[in-house]
Amino acid sequence: MAEPPAEKTAVETVAESVINKNFKVPELIGEINVPRVEDGYRRKGVTSAIKPHMAKPAVQAKVGFPETLVDNWEEAAVKRLGELLEKYKSLQVYLDICVRCGSCTDKCQFFIGSNDPNNMPVARAELLRRVYKKYFTTEGKIFGKLAGAHRLDLNLLSDWYAYFHQCSQCRRCSVFCPYGIDTAEISMAAREIMDSIGIGQKYVNEILGKVHEIGNNLGMNPKALAATLESTEEDIEEEDGVPVKLPLDQEGADVLLVTPSADFFASPHIESLIGYAKVFHQAGISWTLSTAASEAGNFGMFIGSYTQLEKVAARVRNAIGELKPKRLVVGECGHAWRVAYSFWNTLIGPFDTLDPRYPAPQHIVEFTLDLVRRGAIKLDKSANDEFTVTFHDSCNVARGSRMGDRPGGQFTMPRELIKASCNKYVDMDPSTTMEKTFCCGGGGGLLTDEILEIRVAGAMPRMQALHAVMESDGVNFMALICAICKAQFTKVLPKYGIPMTVAGGVHQLVGRAIELGAKE
Amino acid sequence: MSGLTLIFGLFFYVSIAIFLVGFMAKVWKYGSTPAPLKIPQTPAPVSAPGVGVRYLQEVFVFKSLFRGNKVLWLGGYLFHLGLLFVLLKHLRFFIAPTSSILSTLVKFDVYSGFILVAALIFLLILRLAIDRHFYISLASDYALLLLLIGIGGTGLLSRFWENGHVRPSVPEVKNFVAGLVTFHPASVPEHKLFLIHFSLVMLLLIYFPFSKLMHAGGVFYSPTRNQIDNPREKRWVNPWAKQVTAAAAAPAAAPVAAAEEPSEG
Amino acid sequence: MSFEFEGKTYETDDDGYLLDLDSWNREVAGHIAEMEGVEMTDAHWEVVDFLRNYYQEYSIAPAIKILIKEMKKMFGPDKGNSAYLYNLYPAGPALQACKIAGLPKPTGCV
């Protein structure tokens, strides 16, 4: 006799997901159409079952979170929300002042690509705001559901787990909000609350565990790192006949380069690593990588955990202490640059042992462009003549950081460097670039395959804009400055019928164009 | 003093008190909650005057909303503009003697009240007609629009419906209001329309600090907009964070140094 | 998660990667390949063997570029490229080949 199906536990309900391998990939038409929210008030969203794997107890324990859903989770979640409201002005103000004007409703790539109304930024924020209203506002206590207040029940918690992992924290919505409400802040808070009650996301928390244990997101140990760098040196020498070095843990080198560990492993990422190495070599500036700080990325930001952010960043401070560099340079990685540029000084500063003549930290694009402008390195544009290049502004660089002295340097400087490296450059539709750029669809901890369906949906606006310039201008190279963008597009481009080789790094172009050898 | 005057007088003081105390408490909370990290939405101004300019653009022309949705901007902007002029004209009930600028404004501006109500109706239609806006709208959003339309409607009626003999006289209202603000209550004008208008405004004031209307104060405390983009140039110190020591990041290393106590917050 | 094969239970992670490196053998690799829709040829096995050997030494899969370089040595320059590698393992060499080789799933921005 068959046993009756066991009742699902609370944690199983939250984790329950559907992985549809044969999802429909949007058609490329070269324009971005906002879908109509067809029917049904408060219907169950079409992507509500797309959820990332939940972190196992061992993974949770490694990052110091409860191993599984705690018994009094509703109470504990409300308590945590209360604490966060005291600690974050952004959260307090943004939960209070949204007027639901609707300006953001058609701005999120995940809504545009998925047509799930809960992916409209305001609707996503309401998932948390409902709970805020229920427990923390007079309005919610008096008027209840009429004012949008709702207790945190299992259904709502399941929706949190789905939809706060369908937000890449790209901040595009905040650009169009009359009050600058930043859904990234809200989704970070929601994830921190979930972690605090034992609901963690496997992809991100497993990686954080690896950073603490081994030193980088990949879990690449020093021996493997050294072997990879050595192999890469051989490759460069074989190809160019020049002994370009990739130094590791060199005390007293002028520059400490902190770069995403994907640069040591994945393609096309590693081509940019080669590019950086050639720049340092040709400029004659001594530099080093560090095993302790073999990761620029900081996934602590994705889960809104200040403690994790700080702990991961502290590795960089330690590396500075050990290697005593004069300058601190960060490789191509979007969220890492936001963390480095905006947060490092707070988290691990002041950088008073570094040379004050240079910004600390400095982006590799700032570093290289400065050398190009001064003529310290020469670029042969014709080396990239096989490419017609466009540039995808990474969300975290575009809306959460800066390069150079002036606002907007994060837009002009990469473009200036790209144009110095190739002859043919075109921009994509201006409604999809610079501060209005769309996220690649894989940022914010979404770069995991079980939610590929939402990643492909989220990439749709960028794919349309890319397709348009491929058709009109013959673009065949989209230059990137982010490890997540590179991995996401390498995976997603083929789904849209575009070769993965179209995705590449800015320093991949630089590396190909740089003239190695004796200087004049 | 009639019972009616007493009731409306008390209603006025209670409402004003709730509004002022509630509003200031909320703004105090916004102001005193710490911002641990630099999160300006870039490109952002690199100096304090730059942030001032950013706010002027947001407050006076609703720049971000304009970029987000032109139709919505039109509705929202006209409503707020209408509201501004209507409020200015209401000053004549509080200021004695009425200044000439105000008299001129009252004489020539016959439109702002209509624009205010028309914009509100337009915003209501947008909520109902646009699929996305309909989806996100709550009962309280409609209620607030209807309350504002009620206030605007009764206000317009009391100004222009003279032939119906429901129009309260300006001196009478002025006398009542002046009495309230000087704590020497005078008789309340016993005109139904005025009493409804007055009551609705008081309700709005009571609801204000507990509602999304707090965007009026809150907008100035939005870290993505009010922060200066200078994290490399000037170290931003988190008031509540204890510094993670090197030992915490590498557990194998030296003894754990005592964490610094946060200096404030 | 786990799956049964020839009377034995194999524990895997949520994505079907073997949890125990040592529980791997050629038969079960063939079985995983079948589930992935990959028909194993000598070239496929060469890649798998290289991955396992590399992992034994470095506790991590090799960078794609290192794998390609190795393939160049094994199969010659016309097959030592990323296109050929994706031809062998369409779902991506890092993810699919590692799975068949019984290695853990690579993490990070890859």
What does this structure look like?
The complex is a heterotrimer of chains A (520), B (265) and C (110). By secondary structure, chain A is mainly alpha-helical. Chain A has two domains: 66-199, Fumarate Reductase Iron-sulfur Protein, Chain B, domain 2 (Orthogonal Bundle); 207-513, no CATH class. Chain A is built from 21 helices and seven strands. Chain A has helices at residues 10-15, 57-62, 73-87, 89-97, 109-114, 121-136, 138-143, 154-163, 172-175, 183-196, 202-213, 222-240, 269-283, 306-323, 334-348, 364-373, 395-400, 409-421, 452-473, 483-492, 506-513; strands spanning 255-258, 287-288, 327-330, 362-363, 389-391, 477-480, 503-505. In chain A, the strands form two sheets. A four-stranded parallel beta sheet of chain A has the order 2-1-3-4. Chain A has a three-stranded parallel beta sheet with strand order 5-6-7, with helices on both faces. The N and C termini of chain A lie far apart (86 Å). The model of chain A has no long low-confidence stretch (mean pLDDT 95). Chain B has 265 residues and is mostly helical. Chain B has one domain (3-231): Transmembrane di-heme cytochromes, Chain C (Fumarate Reductase Cytochrome B subunit), CATH 1.20.950.20. Chain B has helices at residues 3-32, 48-61, 63-68, 70-90, 100-108, 112-129, 131-136, 139-160, 170-181, 192-207, 215-218, 223-226, 246-249. In chain B, helix 1 packs parallel to helix 10 and helix 6 packs antiparallel against helix 8. With 110 residues, chain C is mainly alpha-helical. Chain C has one domain (2-100): DsrC protein, C-terminal domain (Arc Repressor Mutant, subunit A), CATH 1.10.10.370. A two-stranded antiparallel sheet of chain C has the order 1-2. In chain C, helix 2 packs across helix 3. Chain C is globular, with a radius of gyration of 13 Å. The model of chain C has no long low-confidence stretch (mean pLDDT 92). Chains in contact: A-B, A-C. Chains A and B meet through helix 3, helix 4, helix 6, helix 7 and helix 14 of A and helix 1, helix 3, helix 7, helix 8 and helix 12 of B.
